Amino acid sequence: xxxxxxxxxxxxxxxxxxxxxxxxxxxxxxxxxxxxxxxxxxxxxxxxxxxxxxxxxxxxxxxxxxxxxxxxxxxxxxxxxxxxxxxxxxxxxxxxxxxxxxxxxxxxxxxxxxxxxxxxxxxxxxxxxxxxxxxxxxxxxxxxxxxxxxxxxxxxxxxxxxxxxxxxxxxxxxxxxxxxxxxxxxxxxxxxxxx
Length: 195
Ligand SMILES: [Zn+2]
Hints:
With about 200 residues, the chain is an alpha+beta fold. The site of zinc ion (ZN) has 6 residues, from loops. The site of zinc ion has 6 residues, from loops.
């Protein structure tokens, strides 16, 4: 036998001895490639999912043909003629004809209905993005109940002069907006030009 056939024989012997090692190595390589591929795919899926609280909300004015008699201000004191005192008014007061319809400013769920001497009949609606709207000085006869889902622009009740803490303003809607249960300026969400 010459050298060449010796070499060939040696190679064949090596393969016969170590073929399972080669197979194992190929198997490990395939496993690693699979893991990397699945990993990068998962990353792509995660990137395509938008955060759940990023939903864009549509807001409507809670009533039409209204005049703003008191604006939101979280610092300056405003005079309350009813109580004869200066106070911070973190709400917008819309004066309007007695009995005018009040609409949900945005889609959401009615989470609270109550009545106090100072605020009159009050409806609270919870929206996405940790927002709430609060409608005070309503007529006690409402179109909604706690637990109702409402859409933006849906009639929830009627304006009255039930808030005795602001009775001097006459029939009006005392409208508040809250984010994470802290009062915020509703004008950031409402198009007050169209009131
Ligand atoms: Zn008010």
